[in-house]
Batch of 3 targets.
Target 1
Amino acid sequence: MPVVPVSPTRQRLPAWFRRSLPESAESAVTDAIVRKHRLTTVCEEATCPNRQECWAKRAATFMLMGEACTRTCTFCDVAHTRTPPPLEADEPERIAAATAELGLKFVVITSVNRDDLPDGGAAHFAATVAAVRGRCPGTLIEILTPDFCGNGSALATAVAVKPDVFNHNLETVERLYPTVRPQARYRRSLEFLRRIKEIDPTRRTKSGIMVGLGETDDEVRTIMADLRAANVDIMTIGQYLRPSLDHHDILRFVTPDQFATYERWGREAGFSWVASGPYVRSSYFAEQVLAGAVESLPAPR
């Protein structure tokens, strides 16, 4: 098994990571609503560096199907379990209620991997989209799903509910999958993204990667070409930040100039929108990312 790069000390963040954040009190409303409806967010479970900024704007990314994942990706701070809990039948309605209470016009719904379920949780995603649409018909919905272990019928279930954006992250370049995403398969994920468009050519598709895990810039260009070959519309690129000393090391800090270069490369590759920057995450300012893409994309039907 490949050795995961781990060093005993935490690297100091470069100067370009300094930024002003809103007072934590401003995010109290979002926090209270999340607690009231007993919801899990990727903002908390994955230790997202943007949580305070997003929650101050009443934006949160809901995470379905529990707090622990059946996979052991070395970049991720979400807990791991071999025995996940049963699905909560009322979770879709609780997310819909929170979406309404937060007044969200755009909501991102993701999940842990549930490889223990025959459909990987696809039906639960579909039920959640339906619940949000029922209560908040004007709200745009982005789903960020696992690969459902390549299950074609599960994918069809998730596509059938017509999310406004269908996101599935590649996370890193193909060479690093054995150390970074040991239970995932790069080519399987590319095929997953390609098949979304095959099932419904009007769906907007999206994928994202982190840099700083050991990839080269040439490999970043290759992943762009692979995503465009799968007809992916939107790409996000952000800096990997190590959640703890037990996680994969940060092997480089990409400069803002290089992130700008990635954005240019992505535009040249044909993406309708590329969000590229140190703090970019797949759901960070997702509404604005979609707004930047819609002018060059047909509206979903």
Target 2
Amino acid sequence: MDNGKRPLSREEKFRRESEQRIKNLKPKDYKDGYYIDEYGERLKQERRAKEIHKQETEVIHRHKKPLTQKQFKLRRRLFYSLIFVIVLIIGAVLSLTVLFKTEKIVVEGGKYYYEDQIIAFSGVELQQNIFTSALFSTPEKITENLSYIESVKISFTIPDTITIKVTDAVPSYVIKSGKSYLLISAKGRILENIADNKDKLPELKCDNLTSTKTGDYLSFSDENIPDILSEISNSLNKNKVNEIKGIDITNTANVKLDYDGRIQINLGMPEDIDYKIRTAIIIINEKLDPNKAETISGTLDVSACNTTKTSRYKPAETAAPATTVQPTTAADSYYGADSGDYSWDDSTDYDVYNDDIYSDDAYSDYADDGVVDDGENTYVEE
């Protein structure tokens, strides 16, 4: 055992010792003569060797203790869990190899491109497994290569359908670029270069562009500008305002809109934009130009209407005199000196206004407390 060899078994030791004893036997006197009975001695030693071998190889079986109820439940759970895992593995293999092949590819949305164009960039093919198709699809390649698509979502429907849901970009404004225009989406993406602004979309005034490549997104020094433009575009679309000819964001602390080339709307700080736009449109439609004469021009300041509930209008110096509406109550009468602009109080709600009177050369502030301030003098309503 010291030299690396395996230890001898009891049987082997006995056989070696037996051989040595047989060699050392001395002759004995038997009835038939005097000699060494080597054969008989070997038979006897062999029987003993077999007994030792049997003892060494014999396995003793002990009676096991019976399982407790807890052990029995645990073993049963393990057994069922193993079966469940095996079933899952078999089901997964079948699902990925034999079942759920893609038989239909459905494109939802996407009015600017053919379905084949969209599918070509999706990474989805017929006869692929629907699970792996959806998992390894490439919706980002669709938006990268097709500029009029804003976002894409790819999903599957068991047993055989892949659905590509497309959200189109919304052309919202243009930017002058030489003799042509860049068509821009609400999210600030360059959709294409167009020769003229035939849809009469608002023209954006902003800083110099870093890129004019189709598919790129506009980059501005102020990272908040894309969100501001998106909010303006969404508000104009939601409220169906089609008269805006320009958007000026050269100064983000004083955002301006050009209404029909006649009225400049000052939104001021880019906060509560939808509220300010709705207020401005209602003032124009119901106060300044209710008869749609389209002769009113000037500056409408709604920058503070979300906080002070006050909006101000100043006619252009060259504008024709505004139409005068006869007052119906004492509060509707005109007060004040010639200061050159107008204001009114809309404190009850953005779409509820008093029947104030406006002229082309003065303004008056109406408040709920009955005090009228024209900027120079203060009057108390009778």
Target 3
Amino acid sequence: MKLLKTFVTSFCFLLIFTSYAQEKRKFKVHTIAFYNVENLFDTINDPQKFDEASPIMELKFDRGEIYKKKVKNMARVISEIGADVSNNSPAIIGISEVENRQVIEDLANDDALYGKDYGIIHFDSPDARGIDVALMYQKALFSPIDSSSHELKIYDDITRKRVYTRDQLLVSGKLDGELIHIIVSHWPSRSGGEARSRPKRIAAARLNKRIIDSLQAIDPYAKIFSMGDLNDDPTNASLKDILKTEKNKEDVELKGIYNPMEEFFRQGLGSNAYRDAWSLFDQILITKPLLETDYSSFRFYKAGIFNKLYLTNKEGRYKGYPLRSFADGGFTDGFSDHFPVYVHIIKEVKE
């Protein structure tokens, strides 16, 4: 009987101690995000690009003021992504639909972001309209080691002429001293129909896979984030058949890829809408080492779609859709036709 009492007492103490220890655990949290900023173009006509077809260049009046407002709106959104958990704007954010480095610098220098001291990695891509992808990072948190632009060569299936589209950006660096790799991409659109344009996104997925494979050939335990506007949903062939993404963390094997956005999509959530149907084209994919449960280094915590109410249409036929910046030939004072997406990663901090 005494032994039983001693066991019960010890067990209860262990539970209390364990609970107390868990409550006292502290974690460092960072947000890694992606945002299609919807035609962030300047007001200067570049003769080397077809940028005159951008919405802001089609405006007849007040282009300069509208550009400033567009930048300010984008900066506000970026400053708030994930901040409810990390108490900070994203440590790293990939962006798409930017025209050039200058518009990214204007974004980073806006009052909402200036204090974060964002660095920029950007390459001009061969896209006919001049649409590029880029990476912004807080210099105090992330130190780039290497960056490269990877060309996607695709051809029209009828004319056999080359289709000039966005390159895929690879950046490797240290986040709080830990080596990570980020791929930012904007896959070919569904112009001409989903089925006809599908081979172009399959080609983009193959390029993405080659980049990931090259990193894993050097280090099978590489921590990789592949993000972008993929113009495909998490269940499409480009993701499931080419990248072989998994919906469940427990199904991801070494060198495998987890897609936390797939569960959101299956729940009917999306980042962009068209003809009363939601799509989740904006995704962040992560590799197996980010799923381990040893929090002595950065691990995946959770993912999200940043779809705050102020980012949505409040009325009309597009009620509930993302409140885009440009519509019906004018500026709406909105944001983007896409919601941003993000992941939180955490690491335990020892006192």
